[in-house]
Design goal:
single chain; about 475 residues; mainly alpha; 3-stranded antiparallel beta sheet; 11 helices; 5 strands; globular; binds fe (ii) ion
Length: about 475
């Protein structure tokens, strides 16, 4: 195993050339991936030169190389984090045993399901974002969009490698399926709900990379604990790429807010919308939407699957070693559970069964940290408005609160009261039309920004403000 990534047809650090059968299978999948990328990847930019980072090593420091590349020539490949010597399973019933280098027969179906579910989200997000380049607010943002897109493509490679190398014919069939499903398609949708939602403008893109990529971070952190060592090492390297996606989301939202505050100050009535900006209550509605659909991705609050994954050592808690006790037996999680009469009652749920909720709690705290930064910006400008995370019961489509009319504070309303106030809490068709009306034209002039967003504090890799991140081919 080497931390350096080869220059082979499929770049890798797993000595792929030593396994001819696997290499041939992946080389047969590669052109199908490129076909998918050209069909479903960013539309209208495939011939342009984009200033992108590519992994050249999996070392903690300096793993990326920055240069211009056409997206179809991006070096997608297989990059695993270095192995940890004598690694043991850190939780569940198999705690203390050596980690698995091959898939244990009794966990084969569960592992395949975990890998396919994770893998399906990666191409799905590329599909959701494929038209955004045509309305980009700047070349800087256009480049960031494409960086996120090519790395999601790379994450698909990461999961396909596991399927091909460890799951035989089933794995190869699943790898084909990952290229066949389509985000939002009625007949062959992507597996998870949030990945079928339209991401039709840049405000949704920043909310997606803030909230939905952050779900990805927590899923990867839980899988990084896996007793299946190849999955752990794959997800550990994916996490280093994922950090940039959340940076794009967080700084994107901060820049929207900064610009909104500038426009409010300029306007006699503090009305950002009057100045062609995105007002803070509207931003709150988009936060509510993307936060709630991302909460669904963690799965049911009470889940026998989650319990089984934990028991068998397939999926742990985020940073399992920080917990004192690792079997999660004879422990309980207090949860507000809807009763038959429509009220909520506190119930003690066996901890293993509540593992999705344990992971969701970490996600909620992490989501709040960025919101605190946004609220500091608003406070410093002298305004009273504060962005809030809704109750985890609000607008849920999965789990024990699914379809119940809770308000953002978590109070259960009548269906009529909820419907009457829905447009105060979630983006309406008018909101969608307004946000899109701000983003009808792309901005390709180096250094220029759309009116509704502030410039970034610094460029990528210290590039100057007017750096040409994307060289358009006329
Ligand atoms: Fe990803
Ligand atoms: Fe991501």
């Amino acid at each position: 195993m080497s931390s350096v990534i080869t220059n082979d047809r499929i770049p890798n650090n797993v000595h792929l050339a030593d396994d001819r059968k696997l290499q041939r299978a992946l080389e047969a999948w590669q052109p199908r991936f490129i076909d998918w990328w050209c069909d479903m990847g960013p539309e209208g930019f495939q011939q342009d030169q984009i200033y992108l980072r590519t992994a050249t090593s999996v070392d903690a420091k300096g793993w990326a190389h920055f240069d211009y590349v056409k997206m179809p020539d991006y070096r997608w490949g297989i990059f695993l984090a270095d192995p940890v010597q004598d690694r043991k399973i850190g939780f569940g019933d198999n705690m203390g045993r050596d980690v698995w280098q091959t898939v244990p027969g009794e966990h084969r179906n569960a592992l395949r399901r975990l890998i396919v579910t994770q893998g399906d989200t990666e191409p799905a997000s590329v599909e959701q974002q494929r038209l955004l380049g045509k309305t980009c607010p700047s070349l800087y943002d256009l480049r960031n969009l494409f960086q996120v897109n090519v790395e999601e493509g790379r994450h698909l490679w990461a999961m396909v490698y596991l399927l091909h190398s460890h799951f035989g014919r089933d794995g190869r069939e699943e790898a084909e399926g990952l290229l066949e499903r389509r985000s939002g398609d009625e007949d062959k949708p992507r597996i998870l709900g949030a990945f079928n939602e339209p991401c039709s403008h840049w405000l949704s893109f920043f909310c997606f990379t803030y909230f939905t990529d952050r779900d990805g971070k927590y899923q990867l952190l839980a899988l990084a604990e896996s007793g299946f060592d190849a999955l752990s090492r794959t997800t550990r390297f994916m996490l280093t790429e994922e950090a940039h996606h959340m940076f794009v989301g967080e700084t994107g939202l901060l820049r929207v807010i900064q610009r909104t505050l500038e426009l409010m100050e300029k306007n006699p009535n503090d009305d950002a919308r009057d100045e062609g900006g995105i007002d803070l209550p509207m931003l709150q509605r988009y936060v509510n939407l993307w936060y709630s659909v991302s909460l669904d991705l963690f799965g049911g609050e009470i889940s026998s699957n989650a319990a089984a994954y934990f028991a068998s050592g397939l999926k742990g808690r985020c940073k399992e070693s920080k917990f004192e006790e690792h079997t999660a037996l004879d422990q309980f999680y207090e949860m507000q559970v809807p009763q038959d009469d429509g009220t909520l009652a506190t119930e003690e749920i066996p901890l293993r069964t509540a593992m999705n909720e344990v992971l969701r709690d970490e996600y909620v705290d992490d989501s709040q940290r960025g919101l605190d930064k946004m609220n500091r910006l608003i406070a410093e400008a002298g305004y009273d408005f504060r962005l809030k995370l809704a109750s985890t019961r609000f607008n849920r489509a999965a789990g024990i609160y699914a379809g119940m009319p809770f308000d953002p504070e978590g109070n259960l309303l009548s269906k009529e009261d909820f419907d009457a106030r829905k447009n105060d809490w979630l983006p309406s068709e008018e909101d969608e039309a307004y946000v899109k009306s701000l983003m009808t034209e792309p901005i390709y002039e180096p250094g220029k920004m759309a009116n509704w967003i502030a410039a970034p504090n610094r460029g990528i890799k210290g590039a100057p403000a007017d750096f040409e991140y994307v060289k358009r081919q006329a």
